[in-house]
């Protein structure tokens, strides 16, 4: 009988945990973003209009923000409002966001291309060029690897 109670309690706890959901909120109000994210948008995308902001609150993790602009650009910000990725689809990522070492490497080795997306990770940067080539760089902008679309 005691074993049945323990199993029931474990099943109840498992069900309760799976029903707990993170809170997502959708808005177009830039004021919902942390101040650094607002400043980032004003500096790098001053004329672009916001089509959607997803405020993604995680249970055990901090909040992050996914912003989609009307021109198709997608930008992700962490809890403190610092950008983690910028995907401009077919347009060029603003030059100011790219380390000089990465800009120099791309212009020297891929002169007919431009960077359409960049992702900042603890291991460095991942970029994609308009021809589909993906490049990885260390945190200081040193080249690490390349992957080409098949």
Please, could you describe this protein's structure?
It is a single chain. With 150 residues, this protein is of the alpha+beta class. The chain folds into 2 domains: 21-87, 3-Layer(aba) Sandwich (Inhibitor of vertebrate lysozyme, Ivy); 88-150, Inhibitor of vertebrate lysozyme, Ivy, CATH 3.40.1420. It has 3 helices and 9 strands, in the order αβαββββαββββ. Strands 1-2-3-4-5-6-7-8-9 form a 9-stranded antiparallel β-sheet, with helices on one face. A hairpin with a 6-residue loop joins β2 (50-57) and β3 (64-69). The radius of gyration is 21 Å and the shape is globular.
Entry keywords:
150 residues; alpha+beta; Inhibitor of vertebrate lysozyme, Ivy; 33% strand; globular
Short description:
By secondary structure, the chain is of the alpha+beta class. 25% of the residues lie in helices and 33% in strands. The chain contains 3 helices and 9 strands; from the N terminus they run H-E-H-E-E-E-E-H-E-E-E-E.
């Amino acid at each position: 009988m005691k074993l049945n109670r323990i199993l029931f309690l474990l099943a109840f706890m498992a069900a309760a945990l799976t029903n707990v959901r993170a809170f997502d909120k959708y808005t177009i109000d830039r004021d919902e973003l942390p101040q650094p994210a607002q400043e980032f948008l004003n500096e790098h995308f001053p004329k672009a209009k916001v089509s959607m902001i997803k405020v993604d609150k995680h249970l055990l993790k901090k909040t992050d923000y996914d912003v989609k602009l009307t021109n198709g650009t997608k930008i992700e910000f962490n809890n403190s409002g610092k950008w983690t990725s910028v995907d401009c689809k077919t347009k060029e990522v603003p030059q100011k966001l790219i380390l000089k070492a990465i800009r120099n490497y791309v212009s020297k080795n891929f002169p007919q291309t431009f960077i359409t997306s960049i992702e900042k990770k603890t291991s460095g940067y991942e970029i994609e060029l308009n021809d589909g080539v993906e490049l990885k760089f260390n945190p200081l902008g040193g080249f690490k690897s390349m992957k080409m679309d098949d």
